[in-house]
Give the backbone structure.
Amino acid sequence: QLQLVESGGGLVQPGGSLRLSCAASGFSLDYYGIGWFRQSPGKEREGVACIAISGGSTNYADSVKGRFTISRDNAKNTVYLQMNSLKPEDTAIYYCAARWYYCSGSVPDYNYWGQGTQVTVSS
């Protein structure tokens, strides 16, 4: 069974950091582009960051550039999202998703999705 499982979410103060993990089971991430998305109440799911196969090209939403870093460890079959300088507006459920080969910021382009992990930035 193909599965993506996110972890690492939680409550953090503004200016703090979190590292999210996206672990795959049932398939290898080696040939998949991975995207991180987020969704807050009343808003559409939006792309945050993505990484192409084998640590190739990366892309970030303007709102997180310079604060978030996406990386992958194919040996661990895991992709990470390091989030620094967190702001209250980063509060959302964060999802990872996989698609064949390439990086994309578009929700319909992805075939596999995790269940999400809650990130709350609040003092």
